[in-house]
Specification:
60 residues; mainly alpha; 87% helix; 0% strand; membrane; transmembrane; transmembrane helix
């Protein structure tokens, strides 16, 4: 099991866990109130930012 064979950085785990719980609760509430087209734009821009950052990181 991976968790037993490596070091777990608990100072990262706790904030990530809190963020996941809050996002999992608030995300569906927010999405229900936003228009579908706006969500498409937000996801598209986020995907482009992620792709560009991965390309830049890979080139350096």
């Amino acid at each position: 099991m991976f968790a037993l064979e490596t070091t777990i950085y608990w100072n990262y785990v706790i904030p990530l866990m809190i963020g996941n719980v809050i996002g999992g609760y608030l995300g569906p509430i927010i999405v229900r109130h936003l228009p579908g087209r706006l969500m498409q734009i937000i996801v598209g821009i986020g995907s482009l930012i992620l792709a560009v950052s991965l390309v830049i990181r890979n080139l350096m």
